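Reopening this one. Same input as before:
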Amino acid sequence: MPTYLFYLVLYWLPESALTFPLDKRWILLTFIFFGTFLVPGIGTYAMFRYGLVNSLELGDRVQRRFPLLFTSFCYATVTYFFQRNLGFSELFYYLMLLITLSVFATYLVSLFWKISAHGVGLGGLLGLLALLNHLLPESGLLYLIILFVLVAGAVLSARLALNEHTPAQVYAGLFTGLVIGGSLMLFV
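Same output, byte for byte:
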C-alpha cells in the first residue's frame, strides 16, 4: 500500500506540491518498495521457514504478531529515513509516519482481536487521499478516491466472502485506517 500511495503522490500531485526532482522519483519509489514490501515480505517468509508462523496467509490472529511487529519496524526505519533527510518534503515523512502508525495499531489490536489489515490499509489510503485532495483540490485526486472506494469495497467484500473476517473486523479496520490516515490534518 505505501508503494501505491507514494506512486500517486510522486506522479499524480502537481509539481508545485513537491520539491523532489521528477527524474529522481523512481529511486525514491524503489526505496519505498524495498523497505515497505520486499523486506517485510522476505522477513515474513523467513518466519514461516523457521516455524515462527505456520502459514503465509496469517489467518490466525496469533500468527500475525511477529510479522506485523517486524513490518512496523521496517516501516519505522523508512519513516526515520525521511525524518533525518532534510532534502525530502515533510509530506513524505508525515505520510510514512501515519502508515507506520497504522501498521503498529494493527499489531496492537491483533494482540487481543483480529482486525482486517486490508481494511486498515485501504482506509488509511482513502483517508490520506481525501486529505490530500482537500489540501490540493487542483490535484484531481477525486477520481482516484472514487476508484479506491470501489477497490476497497471489492477487497473487503472478498475478505468477507472468504470468511477471513467478520463484518465488525472489516469495518473496524476501515474506520481505523480512515481515522489514522485523516489525522494528517493535525500536522498541516
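So the earlier flakiness isn't reproducible anymore. For the record, The first helix runs from residue 2 to 12.
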